[in-house]
Write a structure and sequence with these properties.
Layout: H1 4-23, H2 26-42, H3 52-73, H4 88-106, H5 110-120, H6 126-133, H7 137-162
Amino acid sequence: MLTFHELYERHARDVYRFAYWICGDPDEAEDITSETFVRAWTAQAPIRTETVKAYLFAIARNLYLQQRRRLKRETQLDALAPDPAPTAEQLVEDRLALTEAQAGIQALPETDRAALIMHALYDMPYDEIARALSLSVVAAKVKVHRARLKLAQARLKKETRENGHKP
């Protein structure tokens, strides 16, 4: 029975050459060679000396094929792909938009503001809004509608001013 050291000394060059010829890359051939001997050493079944080289070549070839299958599943990342994280400018724009929206909502009369928040943020039905604000259902619908219109008009005025047009 061969020791691991003897096995390695006798067959490492042949396994490396075999791996190099099948993959064409010296670094990959070294990796395949070392992994081949690790697998041979940790194998459960004993190695028969008359088939050691074929056994080692089979391991090396299987490692090479596994690497090729793994590489087929991998793809190169596009260096020009945009970063999904928001940019500093986008964060500032979002913060400004939120501040403007909050200011617009705060400018609404309190009942209109409460009705809009209950409906838009909390998805409350109009009959519950009406009960909470001591209004009729029709009045609750009107309050939400008018609040949305006022916010839309304020936004339109702002966009018009930003685009250089007179309101």
